[in-house]
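REQUEST FORM: STRUCTURE PREDICTION
Request ID: SP-0412
Submitted by: Lab K.M.
Chain count: 1
Length (residues): 73
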Amino acid sequence: MGGYPESFELKWKVLNQGDQARERNMIRGSIMSDKGTQSLEESSDFYGDHFVECYAIKGGALAARAHISVPTE
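STATUS: Completed
RESULT:
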C-alpha cells in the first residue's frame, strides 16, 4: 500500500419518508454516485424519518457500509 489509501468508489443513499415527505412528493431512496468529494452535505426542510447510507465499492463489490439516522426537530 505504500501509505496511500486504496482506491474505492463511494455511493450514497438518502432516504426521506413520512407524512410531510409524502405530501410534498419528496420521498427519496435512490443510490447516487459520489461527486469526488468523499462527503455529502444536505439540509432538511421538513420533519420525518431521514437516514443516510454510504457504500464503499471496491472491485465491483461492496467493501463497507455506514448508516446514520438523521434527527429532525
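NOTES: The radius of gyration is 15 Å.
Reviewed by: T.R.
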